[in-house]
Structure formats: C-alpha cells, structure tokens
Design goal:
Elements (H helix, E strand, L loop, with lengths): L8 E7 L8 E6 L6 H11 L3 H26 L21 E4 L3 E2 L7 H15 L6 E2 L2 H4 L9 H8 L3 E10 L2 E10 L4 E11 L3 H15 L6 H7 L6 H14 L4 H17 L4 H17 L5 H16 L6 H13 L3 H14 L4 H13 L3 H14 L5 H13 L3 H25 L2 H17 L4 H16 L4 H18 L4 H13 L3 H14 L4 H13 L3 H14 L6 H13 L2 H14 L4 H14 L2 H14 L5 H7 L5 H14 L6
Parallel strand pairs: 3-5, 3-6, 4-6
Antiparallel strand pairs: 1-2, 6-7, 7-8
Helix pairs in contact: 1-2, 3-6, 3-8, 8-9, 9-10, 10-11, 10-12, 11-12, 12-13, 12-14, 13-14, 14-15, 14-16, 15-16, 16-17, 17-18, 18-19, 19-20, 19-21, 20-21, 21-22, 21-23, 22-23, 23-24, 23-25, 24-25, 25-26, 26-27, 27-28, 27-30
Length: 663
C-alpha cells in the first residue's frame, strides 16, 4: 500500500490483535496537510457546497472517533503479558528502572556475535551514568543470553518496570538493528525502531537508541550528562577488540586475562585516545597483581598505576577510571583517597554495580561498616545475579557492625550459592570452568573454614591440574592434603570420602581407592555422585563389569546427570570392547558438555577402534582445538590404568587418530 496510495504513515511496530494468532504490523495514518483526510476536505470545498463540507467533516470525526476507539480497545491492550508488581523479586524504585537484554545476533556468521553483545553492553554503560535511572548490570541481564524468556518474567526476576530488547544483523558493510522498549507492568511497547544503516554508522545507531530510551522515559539530562553517555571511540575496529576483550576479562583467569590485555592493547593502538581501553589495560595488570598471575606482583601493580595515571590525563569523566583509582588507593592503604574516588565513580555512574561494591569494600576496610552495607546492598540490587564475593562483603560488614543475625544469614547464603556455583562449574567440564571452581572454593574456605565443602573444591582443582599434566606429583599431594582436611572436618561427609577415592586412583593406589569409594557409599547409600566416583575407580582398576553396576545405579539415582555419568559408562564399555555402545554413551556426554576435551579424546579413540578414521580425526582435531596440550605422552603419564594392556590400547588408538606424541 505504501506506494499505491498517496498517504503517509508512522510505523508503530507489531502488535497482538484480538482473534488473530500472530502479531500484525500496525501503522498510523498521519493526518496533516497533504494526508488523505485533508485532500478530501479540500476537494469538497471546491464544490462550494457548505452543507456537504459539514457532512463530510462530521463523517470524518465519526471515522476518527471510531479509529481511536478501535485503537484504544484493541491496539492499546497489552501487547505482551504484563508483569506482576506483587511477584517482583525486589521492590520497584521510585525512579524509572530498566533492564537491557542481550541483543539477538541474527547474522549467519557467529563471529559477529560480539557486535550484538557490545551494543547491549554500551547501552547499559551509557544509561548507567544517568542519575534519574536505575539500570540493571550486564552480568544479570546477560544470563538470559540464548534463552527464550518472557519480558514479564525478566521484569519480575530483576525488579524493573521497563525492558529493552532487540536484534542485530550484519551483512557485508550493511547493518540492520531493531530495538523495542517495553513497559513490562502495562504490557505495552513504548517505542520501537528499525535501523538499516551502513556499518560505519554503528555508533550513530547506538546513540540514537540510547537517546530514544531517555526521551521515552521522560528523563531530563544535564549538559554534562549528555556529553558523558554517548559512545567513547569513533573507531569501530578498536571498539570491536575492546568488546571481545571485556568478555574475556570478566573470567578472571590467568590465560583469559592475558588474552584480554592483548586485545585491549590492540584497541588502544588503533585509537590512542580510547580512554576506556587504557583503563582496562590497567585493570588487567591489577588482576595479575591481585591473583598473583604474573612473575612479579609488584611490577604488575606499578604498571597498573602508571597506566591509570596516563588515562587520567585524557579526561576524568568515566566512572571506571575513578573505580580503578579507588581500588589502587585501597591497595596502598590510602583510605580517604580511595573513598573519595569511589564516590566520584558513583556520582558519574550511579547505576554501576561494580562501582558500588568496590566502594563498599573500601568502606569496610576503612571501618565505615554502615555505609559499606548500604553500597553492598545497592550493588546487589543493581546486579541481582551478583557474584558470591559481593555477599561476602555484605556479610563481614554486618558482622563488624554487630548485626550478627544478618551476618549469619548472609554467610549461609554465600555458602549455598557457592555450592550451586561449584556444581554448575564442574558440570561444564572445561579447564576454565574448573579453574573458576577452584576460585569459588577458596572464597568458601576464606568465609567458612570450618566447612568441608571449600576444601573439597580445592582438592578437586588440584586433582584436575594433575590430570591435565600440571605438576602431577605436587598437585596430587595437595589434592590428597585437602581431601584429608575435608574428612577431618566432617568424617561422615560421603563426598569427601568419594573424592579421596579418586585421588587414590590417580596415585595408582587402586585398593585404597576402592575402599574409600565403598566407605562413601556406606555413608550415603542413595548418593548418586559417590556411586559414580566408585564406577570410575573400578574402571581404572580393570573391573568394568562392576563399574557398570555402580554407574547404572548412579544414573537411576540422578535423573538429570552431568556428562561424567555417561562418560564413565562409555569408558566401561570401551574396556569390554562394546564400541558401538561406547559411541552412544560418549555422544550423550557431549550433549551435556560439548566443550569437554576428554570426551572428544575418548570418542576419537573409539572411532579408531571401529575403523572410522575420518570421524576419529575430526574428534581429535576438536579435542586439540579445545586443549592443545593433549598428547599421547600426557595420557600415558596421567591415565591411572592398572592393566597396562588397557592403557596401550588407548595410546595406540590416539596415535592413529592424529594426536601428537608429546614430550
């Protein structure tokens, strides 16, 4: 119709209409000189018939009233299911509150996903600097990535009135971005827009979306706020590197931190005035200092300070800059300066959860526990999916403020959240997830040294390091020590005894391993995990038939097992020579943990034993892509098979599949 009738329209986006199953595109006919209604009136005026003009005007009024009535009755009905204020996880604040969901990447090329992620993150960062808005932190909205979620559920879980969602599609040098702002309480779209632009106009689109949100929510900005919230570099390539780096930086592992620094440095090379990139380079050096990732902690700290000093000379309008100074001054014991910088960060970014929790930590160490509690709670409100250490800061501040009941409640919450996080991390089965599990375990030990769960986590971390060939003897010794510590704290903890059995297995003390495994089952006859542990132990002891019995019971006891259950069953069938069953079990394991290198290795071995060389090489390539350190030599040193014929079978198959011999 657009080109067939001489009318002009305003696109109102898609809306649900009664008795129509799918949303329809809705347009408003613009009624101003030149639009259809005016041309009708002008035509009638030329006839000189006043009474007919009045008649037509009346008819027009009736039509307009009818259209408005239709609009009010149908179109202004909720277009999404409204959120319930009563079901909100948090009370709604007085000022407008918004959650920016991750934009969907509609590009066929998955490598372009960082554009969608970065756009969402930039909008959050910009909106977070507006005092009259409450903006949920990226960590809490990004948990919905890749999930089909309802807007009302998001609003209820995060405690917000407004939700922004959208999509990005890049094709060559062209970019299509859609965005829609939803009032989740009323279930209405406040604003929606589709942008078809050249890639070089990306930042213009980003700023326009931010501007339209501000207008739709009727927020007044000062001139200084307007200057701060817009994008921070004109170089799209530099922005791309920085966006990818941020995703890596937030894992807080040595390897990811180093890679993030390399990408931030590339961004700074492309745009030397990109202040945010320099700030994050300084943060990577501080993380090296904080976690001891570098050879010289003092040198890392020195580099962090020098780079922040340089970044400060470029301007001091970014909250991240002042949060960095807050943390540096805290490390130096200069509490007054640290607090002043922390407060500047919050003044510039009032919805920055990171700024609030860093200031809370500073205030705690400065002895201002009351204020520390306020900022810790605000950080957790802005980031409902907060990391455990936020709750830790709150708990110890409650304790020092002599609010012991709240301190105990917070401490228990820390432990329960940590247990769930440890379970989730172990289920992923990647080196990164298990190293992160070790960090969480240390947090638990620091918080509750009287509990066995933290020491179990540390033992598993060192067991894993030994398993992948990292100082096997030293790490197994540490794993053994932590396992004994866990048992000394709770001798009836079945999981600690099951862990000890796994450590004994890696130490090639098979009889002790079996005894520890059976002791674990005595303590918890219905424990799925302890049955699974003993199944693995029996496999390595050369007793696959018994292993299958325990693994079958483990699976019956746990209807939603992690990847290690079918992986263990696959290893049992491998030792029995039932290779087609092996493939079935390892494929089940891959469905649960597609990024687990050991499963890909085992599948490659099985394919060779079946004579499927092409499939074997593909699995070997995937395993090496995920873990380049894997080699025949590594497996020969770390796989604790009691029967050397079993080990030889696997090593020979690995060679045929294309795994390197190694040192």
């Amino acid at each position: 119709m657009e080109n067939k009738l001489g009318l002009e329209y305003e696109d109102l986006g898609k809306h649900e209409v009664k008795n129509i199953s799918r949303p329809i595109q809705v347009y408003r006919v613009l009624s101003y000189p030149g639009a259809a209604a005016h041309r009708v009136v002008q035509a009638k005026e030329t006839l000189g018939r006043k009474w007919r003009k009045i008649g037509f005007s009346a008819a027009a009024v009736v039509v307009i009233v009818g259209v408005l009535g239709f609009w009010q009755f149908y179109m202004r009905r909720p277009t999404v299911e409204p959120a319930s204020v009563e079901k909100m996880a948090f009370p709604l604040p007085e000022k407008p509150s918004i959650a920016v969901l991750l934009f969907d990447n509609l590009s066929r090329d998955e490598s372009q996903e960082y554009i969608a992620d970065g756009l969402s993150e930039n909008i959050i960062s910009s909106l977070s600097q507006i005092p009259d808005l409450m903006v949920i932190a990226r960590n809490s909205t990004f948990v919905y990535k890749g999930k089909a979620v309802r807007v009302n559920e998001v609003a209820e879980e995060l405690g917000v009135k407004y939700v922004l969602e959208g999509s990005v599609q890049k094709s060559g040098e062209n970019l299509r971005v859609t965005a829609q702002l939803i009032d989740a309480i009323k279930g209405h779209h406040l604003w929606s827009e589709k942008y078809d632009r050249a890639t070089k106009d990306f930042f213009t689109v980003q700023d326009d979306i931010t501007r339209n949100i501000v207008i739709a929510l009727q927020v007044e900005l000062t001139q200084g706020e307007q200057a701060r919230i817009w994008h921070r570099t004109e170089n799209l390539e530099a922005w791309g590197y920085a966006t990818k780096a941020i995703a890596l930086f937030q894992h807080y592992t040595k390897e990811k931190n180093t890679k993030a620094r390399e990408l931030f440095e590339r961004a700074a090379e492309l745009d030397p005035n990109y202040t945010a990139a320099w700030i994050f380079i300084a943060w990577t050096h501080f993380i090296d200092f904080r976690f001891g990732f570098s050879e010289s902690r003092s040198e890392s700290f020195k580099q962090s300070v020098e780079i922040i000093q340089m970044a400060s000379m470029m301007g001091d309008s970014l909250p991240e800059l002042h949060s960095a100074w807050n943390t540096i001054y805290l490390a130096q014991g200069q509490y007054d300066k640290a607090i002043a910088e922390g407060k500047k960060a919050i003044a510039l970014g009032p919805s920055s959860a990171t700024s609030h929790i860093l200031l809370a930590m500073t205030l705690h160490f400065a002895g201002n526990f009351k204020e520390s509690i306020l900022h810790a709670k605000e950080a957790m409100r802005l980031n409902p999916n907060y990391p455990n250490w936020n709750l830790n800061v709150l708990a110890i501040s409650y304790s020092m403020a002599e609010k012991y009941e709240k301190a105990i409640a917070s401490s228990k919450n820390v432990i329960e959240r940590a247990k769930m996080e440890l379970l989730s991390l172990w289920r992923k089965g990647t080196e990164e997830s298990i190293m992160r599990a070790g960090q969480v375990a240390q947090e638990v030990v620091d918080m509750a040294p009287e509990l066995s769960v933290g020491y179990r986590g540390l033992a598993w971390r060192h067991w894993f390091l030994a398993f992948i060939g990292r100082s096997p003897r030293g790490n197994l010794k540490k794993a053994y020590g932590f396992a004994l510590k866990a048992i000394s704290l709770d001798e009836y903890d079945s999981l600690s005894h099951g862990l000890l059995g796994s450590v004994y297995t890696s130490m090639r003390q098979h009889e002790k391993a079996i005894a520890a495994g059976k002791r674990a089952i005595e303590l918890d006859p219905n424990g799925a995990e302890v049955h699974m542990y003993l199944g693995y132990t029996l496999n390595f002891a050369g007793r696959p038939d018994e292993a299958i019995e325990y693994l079958n019971k483990a699976i019956r006891l746990n209807p939603f097992p992690s990847y290690v259950y079918p992986d263990g069953m696959g290893r049992s069938y491998l030792l029995k020579g039932h290779y087609e069953k092996v493939v079935t079990e390892f494929k089940k394991a891959l469905q649960l943990a597609p990024m687990s290198p050991p499963v890909h290795v085992s599948l490659a071995v099985t394919y060779i034993l079946l004579g499927w060389e092409e499939e074997a090489r593909a699995s070997a390539e995937k395993a090496l892509e995920l873990a380049p350190f894997i080699s025949v030599s590594l497996v020969s040193k770390t796989a604790p098979y009691k029967n050397q014929a079993d080990l030889k079978l696997i090593l020979d198959a690995m060679r045929k599949a294309g795994f390197p011999e190694g040192a």
